[in-house]
Specification:
Layout (H helix, E strand, L loop, with lengths): L6 H29 L17 H12 L2 H13 L1 H23 L5 H14 L1 H14 L5 H9 L6
Helix pairs in contact: 2-3, 2-6, 3-6, 4-5
Length: about 160
Amino acid sequence: MTQPLTPAARMLRRLLLASLALNLFLGGFLLARTQHRPPTPAATLAWPDSETAAMAALRRLAEVLPAQDAAVLREVALRRLPGFLAARTAFLERVATARAAMQQEPLDEARLAAALEAIGADRLPFAELARQVLLEAVPLLSPEGRRTLAAFELRRP
């Protein structure tokens, strides 16, 4: 049979468990801090709160560029922001039309097909605006910035 623990032994056991828990917590905290990379200077530049996918892609491009080149890309992109927002508004209207067509009883397949076709057509202005931004910005970038941009592989977040 085991003997019951004395009050001092119980207190020591509780302190050891608390110490272990605190050490595990602090170890996890420190590990998380060492794995976190601070943002690049370009990533801290102000971008619009309401981003289109194309603007988000341009922002991700700017994050890999040297700070001066990122500022150039941002400035050019922000000049085109009204076009991006207008295209986004039109796109969202088409999505709403497609959703309404999907919910219609009885389902009108021709209306749904037309609404989905319109959504596909509304994606083209985003690509054109992004192309215009790049055509205007790339000549203004440094050789290093152009090399970085050429090597960049765009991945979805």
